[in-house]
Amino acid sequence: MVSLCLCLILFLSPYSCHTVSDRVLNLFPEIREGIIQTVVMAAPKEKKLFTPGPLCCSRSVKEAMLYDVGSRDVNFLDCVKYIRKTLLEVAQVSPEEFTAVPLQGSGTYSVEAVINTTSPREGAKVLILSNGAYGRRMRNFCSWAGIDAHFQEFPEDEKVNLSVVESLLKGSERFTTVAVVHSETSSGVVNPIREIGQLVRKFQPNAAYLVDAMSSFGAMPIDVRASHIDYLVSSANKCLEGVPGFAYAICRTKHLISCKGNCRVYSLDLVDQYLNLEATGQFRFTPPTHTMLAFQRALQEFQKDGGLEGRAKRYQTNRRILKDGMRNLGFRELLDDSHEGYIITSYFFPKHPKFCFPTFYSKLSELDQVIYPGKVTKADCFRIGNIGYLFPEDMEHLLACIKKVLQEMGLPVPLSA
Ligand SMILES: Cc1ncc(COP(=O)(O)O)c(C=O)c1O
Q1: Are 357 and 383 a contacting pair, CB within 8 Å?
Q2: Which positions ≥6 away from 359 have C-beta within 8 Å?
Q3: Residues lining ligand 1, judged by CB closer than 6 Å?
Q4: pLDDT digits (tens, 9 = 90+) for 124-181
Q5: Domain 59-304 falls in which CATH fold?
Q6: CATH class for domain 307-408?
């Protein structure tokens, strides 16, 4: 045995690690095959994601990434151009008035970029209308950057209150940006962005109106013009069903250009990103090439599926199956029936001594069903999303798995009130 090891060391010593492993493996093709098999088998198992993101996407969207493409390659520049143009079409706004500016990173980066870009270095004041975690995150952007903000908080299970908004906007404070989340994914509440926008335009005509439509764009109707939106933000891996890696802001071009020189963070400067994209067709820094290729395919599939109408219909059906099925199992929703959202639902933890969320979560995950913890502060909840590449049969299967897990945990089915 010792001599065998010595021989092996002598045989391998002149080579670098990489060369050594290649050489050894080439001598034993069956071992090489075995290793490849093991690596493939160790790849994470595909699961169904009933979450706010990352979300499931189609195989063909994932396959669109199987190409290496240079950032200056004509095919890639065409892809960027197609994405920017198509996003404006999805938003139903004209390229004469609006521009789509993609930015590397997750959704948070683009919301933070808009707040930084629209806040002048002197005299900025942001009004944040918040009823959940993503509104609170906007307050963090401001405090981090030293931007003055008026943070107006509303209950997490209620819509932003329009009379409070009106009196704030009528007051003496002048705001440079007014920001609100459309579909507050932390609870499922959908805010009245159109009415808020009308109030902003009426009482503070110079303020930029920012709508975080991260989890609603592409699946819930948004009338950008009638809502007087100046900046609408979403990301690649939400209702348009691309893969994560970049987000985008749909910006009123004239306002965007007026913000030149504001941004305190070089990489988040949307004006600079826009000017560079316009001048060269390229991102300023390494673009998320594979993600953009996937998103191009996702947009084509979105159109093939009937655009916003088709997607809304599928998600509404998913949500209806979930709502009915969970009610039959005895779960209670956080929001009452006056809420019209169909993106994500928060459920109270069942009041039963045998219910334990980590166990419930892991048992579902073992069945390849991934749900999400709650994100409201005042109630014990979990969340189930129904967006992404999910279909009615996926929702039915999830419900069957939930029933099975409840039984395994020793809970009564249906749950008692
Ligand atoms: C409404 C909303 N805003 C912002 C974000 C943050 O996006 P990301 O996690 O991609 O940074 C999310 C994420 O789900 C969201 O739902």
Answers
A1: no
A2: 409
A3: 52-53, 106-108, 111, 134, 181, 185, 212, 214-215, 235
A4: 999 999 999 999 999 999 999 999 999 999 999 999 999 999 999 999 999 999 999 9
A5: Aspartate Aminotransferase; domain 2 (3.40.640)
A6: alpha beta
